[in-house]
Predict the 3D structure of the following.
Amino acid sequence: MRREEVEKLLDRSKKFRDAAEFHFSRGDYDLAAFNTEQSLQLFLKAKLLEKGAEFPKTYTLRRLFLLLGEILRKQDEFKRFADEKALEFASLEDAYITARYFPRDFEKEEARKLLDFAREVEELIGRAFN
C-alpha cells in the first residue's frame, strides 16, 4: 500500500510540474508558481513516505525538506541548503498562500527561478537517496 501511495504522490507531483510549465509558457506566472509549489510539496511528502516516515500535516516546504534531511541523516547538508535558499522556500510558500487567498502577480523571471529551484531541490534529494 505504501508503495502505491508514493507512486501516486510522485505522479501527481509530475502532473503539477507539467501544469507549471504549461502555465509558464502561457504567461500565467502566478499559476506556474502555485503549481510549482504543489509539485514540490507532493514530491517531498512522497519521499518522506518512501523512507517510512509519516509526513506532518503541514504545507511548509522548508519544514518537510528539513525533516527529510533528518531521516536521510544529512541534516547538516539539508540545513545549509535551506539556509542558503530561504528566500526561494519562502517565495514558493507565498505562491501557495497568495494563489488561494490574495491577488499577487508573479513576474516571468520569478516564476522561472522557482521552477529551477524546485528542480534543484529534487536533484539534491535524488543524490541523497543514492
